[in-house]
Specification:
4-stranded antiparallel β-sheet; about 290 residues; 3 domains; single chain; Alpha-Beta Plaits; 7 helices; alpha+beta
Length: about 290
Protein backbone atom coordinates (compact mmCIF):
# COMPACT_ATOMS: atom_id res chain seq x y z
CA UNK A 1 0.00 0.00 0.00
CA UNK A 2 1.33 3.44 -0.97
CA UNK A 3 0.23 6.61 0.76
CA UNK A 4 1.10 10.21 -0.13
CA UNK A 5 0.93 11.41 3.44
CA UNK A 6 1.53 15.13 2.92
CA UNK A 7 1.08 16.42 -0.58
CA UNK A 8 0.85 20.10 0.38
CA UNK A 9 -0.06 22.53 -2.39
CA UNK A 10 0.46 26.24 -1.84
CA UNK A 11 -1.46 28.29 -4.36
CA UNK A 12 -2.15 32.00 -4.87
CA UNK A 13 -5.72 33.05 -5.63
CA UNK A 14 -6.02 35.15 -8.80
CA UNK A 15 -8.49 38.12 -8.66
CA UNK A 16 -11.18 38.54 -11.31
CA UNK A 17 -9.55 41.74 -12.54
CA UNK A 18 -6.13 40.18 -13.05
CA UNK A 19 -5.39 40.08 -16.79
CA UNK A 20 -1.59 39.92 -16.70
CA UNK A 21 0.88 37.86 -14.68
CA UNK A 22 1.12 39.21 -11.15
CA UNK A 23 4.26 40.91 -9.90
CA UNK A 24 6.10 39.82 -6.76
CA UNK A 25 4.51 42.64 -4.75
CA UNK A 26 1.06 41.72 -6.01
CA UNK A 27 1.64 38.09 -5.15
CA UNK A 28 2.67 39.12 -1.64
CA UNK A 29 -0.74 40.80 -1.18
CA UNK A 30 -2.68 37.91 -2.72
CA UNK A 31 -4.47 35.41 -0.49
CA UNK A 32 -2.84 31.99 -0.34
CA UNK A 33 -4.61 28.65 -0.36
CA UNK A 34 -2.85 25.78 1.38
CA UNK A 35 -4.26 22.30 0.72
CA UNK A 36 -3.16 19.05 2.37
CA UNK A 37 -3.93 15.94 0.34
CA UNK A 38 -3.54 12.30 1.40
CA UNK A 39 -3.77 9.81 -1.45
CA UNK A 40 -3.74 6.06 -0.85
CA UNK A 41 -3.23 3.39 -3.48
CA UNK A 42 -3.59 -0.32 -2.90
CA UNK A 43 -2.40 -3.18 -5.05
CA UNK A 44 -1.98 -6.93 -4.54
CA UNK A 45 1.59 -8.01 -3.71
CA UNK A 46 3.62 -9.47 -6.55
CA UNK A 47 6.41 -11.08 -4.55
CA UNK A 48 6.92 -12.88 -1.26
CA UNK A 49 9.99 -13.65 0.83
CA UNK A 50 10.56 -16.59 3.15
CA UNK A 51 13.29 -17.59 5.55
CA UNK A 52 13.61 -21.35 5.83
CA UNK A 53 15.98 -23.20 8.10
CA UNK A 54 17.41 -26.61 8.86
CA UNK A 55 18.63 -27.99 12.17
CA UNK A 56 20.81 -30.97 13.02
CA UNK A 57 21.93 -32.54 16.30
CA UNK A 58 25.07 -34.62 16.81
CA UNK A 59 27.44 -35.60 19.65
CA UNK A 60 30.21 -33.35 18.31
CA UNK A 61 30.23 -29.88 16.78
CA UNK A 62 31.95 -31.15 13.63
CA UNK A 63 29.34 -33.85 13.09
CA UNK A 64 26.47 -31.42 13.72
CA UNK A 65 27.85 -28.92 11.18
CA UNK A 66 28.39 -31.66 8.60
CA UNK A 67 24.86 -32.99 9.05
CA UNK A 68 23.41 -29.50 8.84
CA UNK A 69 25.35 -28.91 5.62
CA UNK A 70 23.90 -32.07 4.09
CA UNK A 71 20.35 -31.06 5.03
CA UNK A 72 20.88 -27.52 3.72
CA UNK A 73 22.20 -28.76 0.37
CA UNK A 74 19.07 -30.92 0.00
CA UNK A 75 16.93 -27.92 0.85
CA UNK A 76 18.74 -25.70 -1.67
CA UNK A 77 18.21 -28.34 -4.36
CA UNK A 78 14.47 -28.28 -3.63
CA UNK A 79 14.45 -24.46 -3.77
CA UNK A 80 16.16 -24.44 -7.17
CA UNK A 81 13.88 -27.23 -8.35
CA UNK A 82 10.89 -25.02 -7.50
CA UNK A 83 12.13 -22.45 -10.02
CA UNK A 84 13.60 -19.90 -7.59
CA UNK A 85 16.34 -17.88 -9.31
CA UNK A 86 19.88 -17.88 -7.90
CA UNK A 87 19.76 -14.14 -7.27
CA UNK A 88 16.68 -14.71 -5.09
CA UNK A 89 18.43 -17.27 -2.87
CA UNK A 90 20.63 -16.06 -0.03
CA UNK A 91 22.25 -18.32 2.55
CA UNK A 92 22.32 -16.38 5.79
CA UNK A 93 24.89 -18.41 7.73
CA UNK A 94 25.24 -21.24 10.19
CA UNK A 95 24.47 -21.23 13.89
CA UNK A 96 26.08 -23.60 16.36
CA UNK A 97 25.12 -24.06 20.00
CA UNK A 98 25.61 -26.68 22.72
CA UNK A 99 22.81 -29.14 23.45
CA UNK A 100 22.12 -29.86 27.13
CA UNK A 101 19.99 -32.39 28.95
CA UNK A 102 18.38 -31.35 32.22
CA UNK A 103 18.59 -33.99 34.94
CA UNK A 104 16.21 -33.42 37.84
CA UNK A 105 17.41 -34.20 41.35
CA UNK A 106 15.57 -34.56 44.67
CA UNK A 107 14.57 -31.36 46.40
CA UNK A 108 13.67 -29.55 43.20
CA UNK A 109 17.28 -29.17 42.14
CA UNK A 110 18.91 -30.39 39.00
CA UNK A 111 21.86 -30.12 36.70
CA UNK A 112 22.45 -29.83 32.98
CA UNK A 113 24.68 -32.22 31.08
CA UNK A 114 26.26 -31.53 27.71
CA UNK A 115 25.04 -34.20 25.29
CA UNK A 116 26.09 -32.72 21.96
CA UNK A 117 25.66 -29.77 19.64
CA UNK A 118 22.91 -28.26 17.50
CA UNK A 119 23.82 -26.75 14.14
CA UNK A 120 21.37 -24.71 12.09
CA UNK A 121 21.36 -22.93 8.79
CA UNK A 122 18.89 -20.47 7.28
CA UNK A 123 18.17 -19.44 3.71
CA UNK A 124 16.30 -16.33 2.58
CA UNK A 125 14.36 -16.83 -0.64
CA UNK A 126 12.14 -14.62 -2.74
CA UNK A 127 9.44 -15.73 -5.16
CA UNK A 128 7.23 -13.87 -7.59
CA UNK A 129 4.94 -16.81 -8.19
CA UNK A 130 2.56 -16.16 -5.31
CA UNK A 131 -0.15 -18.40 -6.74
CA UNK A 132 2.10 -21.42 -6.10
CA UNK A 133 3.29 -20.32 -2.70
CA UNK A 134 1.59 -23.13 -0.79
CA UNK A 135 3.10 -25.70 -3.17
CA UNK A 136 6.51 -24.15 -2.51
CA UNK A 137 5.98 -24.46 1.25
CA UNK A 138 5.05 -28.12 0.85
CA UNK A 139 8.19 -28.74 -1.20
CA UNK A 140 10.40 -27.03 1.37
CA UNK A 141 9.03 -28.98 4.34
CA UNK A 142 9.26 -32.22 2.37
CA UNK A 143 12.90 -31.42 1.61
CA UNK A 144 13.68 -31.13 5.32
CA UNK A 145 13.00 -27.53 6.31
CA UNK A 146 12.67 -27.46 10.10
CA UNK A 147 11.47 -23.85 10.31
CA UNK A 148 9.66 -21.43 8.01
CA UNK A 149 9.41 -17.72 8.77
CA UNK A 150 7.04 -15.84 6.50
CA UNK A 151 5.83 -15.34 3.93
CA UNK A 152 6.29 -11.58 3.88
CA UNK A 153 4.46 -9.99 0.96
CA UNK A 154 5.74 -6.94 -0.89
CA UNK A 155 5.63 -5.00 -4.15
CA UNK A 156 8.72 -5.43 -6.31
CA UNK A 157 8.59 -2.01 -7.97
CA UNK A 158 6.55 0.68 -6.16
CA UNK A 159 7.67 3.46 -8.56
CA UNK A 160 4.56 3.27 -10.81
CA UNK A 161 2.35 3.46 -7.72
CA UNK A 162 4.21 6.52 -6.48
CA UNK A 163 3.75 8.17 -9.86
CA UNK A 164 0.01 7.44 -9.97
CA UNK A 165 -0.47 8.59 -6.36
CA UNK A 166 1.37 11.81 -7.13
CA UNK A 167 -0.80 12.49 -10.18
CA UNK A 168 -4.00 11.91 -8.22
CA UNK A 169 -2.84 14.04 -5.29
CA UNK A 170 -1.93 16.94 -7.57
CA UNK A 171 -5.26 16.76 -9.41
CA UNK A 172 -7.24 16.72 -6.15
CA UNK A 173 -5.17 19.53 -4.68
CA UNK A 174 -5.62 21.73 -7.72
CA UNK A 175 -9.36 21.07 -7.77
CA UNK A 176 -9.83 21.82 -4.07
CA UNK A 177 -7.69 24.96 -4.17
CA UNK A 178 -9.66 26.23 -7.18
CA UNK A 179 -12.95 25.55 -5.41
CA UNK A 180 -11.83 27.54 -2.38
CA UNK A 181 -10.78 30.41 -4.67
CA UNK A 182 -14.13 30.43 -6.51
CA UNK A 183 -16.04 30.44 -3.23
CA UNK A 184 -14.20 33.61 -2.25
CA UNK A 185 -14.60 35.56 -5.50
CA UNK A 186 -11.42 34.57 -7.33
CA UNK A 187 -11.25 33.08 -10.79
CA UNK A 188 -8.41 30.58 -10.44
CA UNK A 189 -5.23 29.74 -8.57
CA UNK A 190 -1.54 29.70 -9.41
CA UNK A 191 0.57 26.87 -8.06
CA UNK A 192 3.42 28.21 -5.92
CA UNK A 193 4.97 25.17 -4.29
CA UNK A 194 4.47 21.51 -3.48
CA UNK A 195 5.75 19.56 -0.49
CA UNK A 196 5.52 15.79 -0.56
CA UNK A 197 5.96 13.00 1.95
CA UNK A 198 5.57 9.43 0.74
CA UNK A 199 5.04 6.43 2.98
CA UNK A 200 5.13 2.95 1.55
CA UNK A 201 4.03 -0.19 3.32
CA UNK A 202 5.12 -3.06 1.15
CA UNK A 203 3.79 -5.73 3.46
CA UNK A 204 0.43 -6.32 5.03
CA UNK A 205 0.31 -6.73 8.78
CA UNK A 206 -1.73 -9.70 9.85
CA UNK A 207 -2.13 -10.98 13.40
CA UNK A 208 -2.60 -14.70 13.79
CA UNK A 209 -3.88 -16.07 17.07
CA UNK A 210 -2.62 -19.66 17.17
CA UNK A 211 -4.50 -22.12 19.34
CA UNK A 212 -4.28 -25.88 19.67
CA UNK A 213 -7.51 -27.75 20.17
CA UNK A 214 -7.22 -28.39 23.92
CA UNK A 215 -6.38 -24.75 24.58
CA UNK A 216 -9.90 -23.74 23.64
CA UNK A 217 -11.50 -26.27 26.01
CA UNK A 218 -10.15 -27.81 29.19
CA UNK A 219 -9.60 -31.57 28.92
CA UNK A 220 -11.70 -33.89 31.05
CA UNK A 221 -9.32 -34.17 33.99
CA UNK A 222 -11.91 -34.18 36.75
CA UNK A 223 -9.81 -33.66 39.90
CA UNK A 224 -6.23 -32.54 39.28
CA UNK A 225 -3.55 -32.25 41.94
CA UNK A 226 -0.90 -29.52 41.68
CA UNK A 227 2.21 -29.50 43.85
CA UNK A 228 4.88 -26.87 44.37
CA UNK A 229 8.23 -28.55 43.63
CA UNK A 230 10.12 -26.38 46.10
CA UNK A 231 7.82 -26.30 49.15
CA UNK A 232 5.87 -29.49 48.57
CA UNK A 233 2.57 -27.67 49.14
CA UNK A 234 -0.25 -29.21 47.12
CA UNK A 235 -3.77 -28.29 46.10
CA UNK A 236 -6.52 -30.27 44.39
CA UNK A 237 -8.71 -28.61 41.77
CA UNK A 238 -11.84 -29.91 40.09
CA UNK A 239 -11.47 -29.07 36.39
CA UNK A 240 -15.24 -28.86 35.97
CA UNK A 241 -15.32 -25.89 38.35
CA UNK A 242 -12.88 -24.05 36.10
CA UNK A 243 -14.33 -24.97 32.71
CA UNK A 244 -16.84 -22.11 32.36
CA UNK A 245 -14.51 -19.35 33.69
CA UNK A 246 -11.70 -20.70 31.50
CA UNK A 247 -13.92 -20.65 28.41
CA UNK A 248 -14.99 -17.07 29.14
CA UNK A 249 -11.37 -15.97 29.67
CA UNK A 250 -10.23 -17.54 26.39
CA UNK A 251 -13.11 -15.96 24.48
CA UNK A 252 -12.45 -12.56 26.06
CA UNK A 253 -8.77 -12.79 25.10
CA UNK A 254 -9.59 -13.66 21.48
CA UNK A 255 -12.21 -10.92 21.23
CA UNK A 256 -9.76 -8.37 22.67
CA UNK A 257 -7.10 -9.37 20.17
CA UNK A 258 -9.55 -9.08 17.27
CA UNK A 259 -10.79 -5.64 18.42
CA UNK A 260 -7.30 -4.26 18.94
CA UNK A 261 -6.15 -5.49 15.53
CA UNK A 262 -9.25 -4.11 13.78
CA UNK A 263 -8.89 -0.75 15.52
CA UNK A 264 -5.37 -0.42 14.13
CA UNK A 265 -6.31 -1.46 10.60
CA UNK A 266 -4.62 -4.84 11.00
CA UNK A 267 -6.12 -7.98 9.54
CA UNK A 268 -6.68 -10.76 12.05
CA UNK A 269 -7.19 -14.48 11.62
CA UNK A 270 -7.47 -17.23 14.21
CA UNK A 271 -5.36 -20.24 13.24
CA UNK A 272 -6.04 -23.66 14.70
CA UNK A 273 -2.78 -25.59 14.86
CA UNK A 274 -4.57 -28.89 14.30
CA UNK A 275 -4.79 -27.88 10.62
CA UNK A 276 -1.72 -27.59 8.34
CA UNK A 277 -0.03 -24.19 8.09
CA UNK A 278 -0.76 -24.07 4.37
CA UNK A 279 -4.52 -24.15 5.04
CA UNK A 280 -4.36 -20.84 6.90
CA UNK A 281 -2.06 -19.39 4.24
CA UNK A 282 -4.40 -20.40 1.43
CA UNK A 283 -7.32 -18.79 3.26
CA UNK A 284 -5.39 -15.55 3.61
CA UNK A 285 -4.26 -15.54 -0.02
CA UNK A 286 -7.84 -16.15 -1.07
CA UNK A 287 -8.92 -13.18 1.03
CA UNK A 288 -6.25 -11.00 -0.58
CA UNK A 289 -7.28 -12.10 -4.05
CA UNK A 290 -10.93 -11.29 -3.38
CA UNK A 291 -10.06 -7.85 -1.98
CA UNK A 292 -7.80 -6.83 -4.88
Amino acid sequence: MLRITSAILLAAAVPVSAQTPASIDEMARTPLVRVNIAETLRTPPDEASLTVGTQAKAPTATAAVALSKTKTEKLLAAIRGAGIRERDIQTQGIQLQPDYRWDAEPGGRGRQTLIGYIAGNSVLIKTRNIDKLTSLLDALTTAGADSVYGPNFSIADPAPLRKEARIRAMARGQAEATEYAHNNGYTSVRLLSVEEGVSYRGTDVIVTGARVGNELELPSLHVARYQDMETGAAVEVDAEDLRAPYRERVRATLDHLAREASGRGIEHQLVNTSAPYTVALEAYLGFRHGRA
